[in-house]
Amino acid sequence: MAFDTILVANRGEIAARVIRTARAMGLRTVAVYTSADARAPHVDLADESVWIGEGPVGESYLDAGRILDAARGSGAGAIHPGYGFLSENADFAQAVAEAGMVFVGPDARAIAAMGNKAGAKRMMIAAGVPCVPGYEGAEQSDGAMTRAAEQIGFPLMVKAAAGGGGRGMRLVERPDALAQALARARSEALGAFGSDELILEKAIIEPRHVEFQVFADAHGNVIHLGERDCSVQRRHQKVVEEAPCPVMTSELRAEMGAAAVAAARAVDYRGAGTVEFLLDASGAFYFLEMNTRLQVEHPVTEMVTGLDLVEWQIRVAQGEALPLAQDDVRLDGHAIEVRLYAEDPANGYLPATGPVLRWQPATGGGVRVDAGIDEGQDISPHYDPMLAKIIAHGPTREMARTRLIRAVKESVLLGTATNSAFLADVLALPEFAAGMATTGLLARAWPEGYPGAAPDPAMVAVAVAVLMQHDRDTALALAGHVAADQLGWSSARVLPRGLMLAIGDDVISCSAGAFVDGWRIGVAGETFNVSLTARGAGFRARIGEATHDVMAHVEGDAVFLAVGALRFSVRCLRSGARDETVQAGGRVTAPMPGLVQSVAVGPGAQVAKGDTLAVLEAMKMQHQIAAPVAGRIRAVHVKTGQSLAAGDIMIEIEDEETAE
């Protein structure tokens, strides 16, 4: 089992995370990457990097053949799958073993056993692990499901036997809704997992989602490293994770931990795994599933135990025994983690794309940020929108929570929409602060969906001041030396400029002019005197008597601003411009980086000036790309779902005047 080179078959923050630990252990590391990830941090961190495709996951990170070829070609003796992608693919684990390499994880048999919810549940019942009453039989007809549902009682859950992550899952509250739920769950499960097998379970209403980190070696040792509470979820996707569980007692931990260890022993497990339970208000708990890999939320366990779980994975894969016995495990303090996503919570949590113009992760005592991004990189539409994990630790839960709120505000990513404000608001909910969150928390907090928050006029004024100061400094740099005491001086009063601003879907007017030591900005009927002083990587903005620390980035006519947890962009529509793409002649290019949402024309089509040609999503907005001239479409260079850089050619029009 000895190896000195390990290939990480993943990307983003988990690839970087694994590479750092492997290098610290003295191992040579190999990264795999796509063209879309060519500038990703994990590529530079590794000793060697191997290209595996253009971008789509099916032709790269999910292509077992390409991963194995990369491992052979680089001389890797082991493959670490991270999480997601091929990490729970039993066929891949088997192929790695057959290729003479070590799969850093459980063997294929254990992955397959726990990968099917129906089979896993039958095994857990046989092992004496408490399970939710339900049906996991082989008969899958609607009739069999209906009879089973009548015995279980409503409400109940319909679940994909082969899946997870909320796909192929439906809550059914009434008998007359069962048939439709079965049909939809089968269709979703077949598309997501290649199997339409379903199970039924009694619905445990608003439980806590509590999971135990287990570890096993090849010498018969199995222990747990405590629990994590992952109850704060949106559509069965985890949002906040913490360790330990706020309502855990030592007696309950011993009982649930023993059940988790029994679950791992039932499949002769090896490596890191997570046994997930539902915990109801009475203290009763039920087996949910076992994830046969490292979890996204493993850092909270690391922070309360002081252990490096990736190092443990590698040492177990090399044949070593676990370094601790169960009685040696100690939990210190409290840790909480949130996931920073490229998404717009106020717009239905739609994934966002765009450039990473600025990235400044939080630092300081008790704070850890695991990220897989860097400035200059583009957020690709091909992959999961998770960009980073922000974790805080403290001697008490309240200190960990307040540290994490600060860390969320201070972890600034500019260039694309993120869920920063949403995360800060979740952590500030009274129910969460009191440690009383269940899986129904977010639905109760925002039953109509997360509303978001628009920037107030004062913050818009700060953004305009940043644009004005940037324009002035750029002009001065081109003009040559101007004495500091002459900046802003004029023998005549400087008249304010009128500006049109695009903020989200809104266009507003404002005025901007200089005054001593700053800018006078008029927005929404109010006038703000704003002065900006460089402070670290950002600004200290004074607005009247108030001050704010802000981070800003100017890109063309747009400014991206971060203040507190709020992130927003303001685009200045320059004099004579319209909020559309106005091009010279008939050559239409992308006005900014973005994702093509739709294309409305094809080659040969006749268009009038101003007709919509395509829709580009960028800067939290959907931009109508309009025809600059009337004519015939000569060529279309883009397609729906394509990620574009600013200036990329989109469409060519043979304009009518030229044609004549």
Automatic annotation (TrEMBL):
InterPro entries: ATP-grasp, BC-like_N, Biotin_BS, Biotin_carboxylase_complex, Biotin_carboxylation_dom, Biotin_COase_C, Biotin_lipoyl, CPAse_ATP-bd. Residues 2-447 form the Biotin carboxylation domain. Residues 121-318 form the ATP-grasp domain. Transmembrane segments: none annotated. Its cofactor is biotin. The keyword Methyltransferase does not apply. Keywords: ATP-binding, Biotin, Ligase, Nucleotide-binding. Residues 581-654 form the Lipoyl-binding domain. The keyword Transmembrane helix does not apply. This is Biotin/lipoyl-binding protein. It comes from Ruegeria aquimaris. The lineage of its organism: Bacteria, Pseudomonadati, Pseudomonadota, Alphaproteobacteria, Rhodobacterales.
